[in-house]
Amino acid sequence: MTPSSPAIPAGWYRDPLGIPQLRWWNGMAWTNRIQEDRAEIQTWSIDYINDALDRRAGRHTAA
Fold this sequence. Notes:
Helix content is about 15%, strand content about 25%. By secondary structure, the chain is α+β, with helices and mostly antiparallel strands. It has one domain. Strands 1-2-3 form a three-stranded antiparallel beta sheet, with no helix packed on it. A hairpin with a 6-residue loop joins strand 1 and strand 2 (about 20-25). The two termini are about 25 Å apart. The mean pLDDT is about 75.
């Protein structure tokens, strides 16, 4: 049995494109929903989300 990647909760996160705004993560993918950047809303780092997506897609490289 292979352990699954941790679930990344839906929520507002800093835009992964580096634009100073927040983008909605629906728990599976980035959406087109955006809003003004308010740092206190962010709870997970973009690097964590992108790393988890890479692992799900089999693109994770050992450090």
